[in-house]
Design brief:
- With 226 residues, the chain is α/β, with parallel strands linked by helices.
- It has one domain: Rossmann fold, CATH 3.40.50.720.
- Helices cover 44% and strands 15% of the residues.
- Helix 1 packs across helix 6, helix 3 runs parallel beside helix 4 and helix 4 runs parallel beside helix 5.
- The longest helix is centred in the middle third of the chain and has 29 residues.
Length: 226
Amino acid sequence: MAPDSKVFLITGASSGIGEATARHAAAAGYRVVLAARSTEKLEALAKELDGLAVTCDVTEWEQQQAMVERALAEYGRIDVAFANAGFGAERGFKAETPEHWRAMVLTNVYGAALTIRACFDPLVESQGHLLLTGSLAGRRALPGSLYSCTKFAVTAMGEAARLELNGTGVRVTLIEPGMVDTPFFDQPPAGALEPDDVARAVMYAVSQPPHVDLNEMLIRPTLQET
């Protein structure tokens, strides 16, 4: 891979959408920076893709800063930052534990905001691309779903970031999948999207010419009714 190749940073990169996107980005010629909490899987993937593995809990500001510092020290730039880390919870305001809720809200909302903050200046310098993993659940409330509420926050965050970055050359895309066959589900729903399907949408967004800013991509399985 050329030493001046563009750099694609992904949080939540050890599995699911993050892992699939890392593979597609590397195949497209990007140098990849892969961040997650699960070090063993992350390092194996980074070795396979000739990328950089950074253990990072996105809810910790110092770890996000260290992630960006390592990316810049190793590669000198960040062209794409994909705030993808997140997880879900059972529906119902009496389901799950308050501790699970707290971790989910911190990861899905605060963690995404910290990724924007940490990557902000490098993206402005490269006139790069910011992506966030939202959800179909961030466009319509689901019964008793605090997860849905966190993704509504990510939807707003994407537009808030776009407005602040307008005029800098940085593009912002919110990726909003419906049901995806990832560890999110104990048993994958019939006809669910594959992580590769979402990764292809991510790569479509970043492959647009600089004057095209694809702000939202809602991706449903063909069989999903709502």
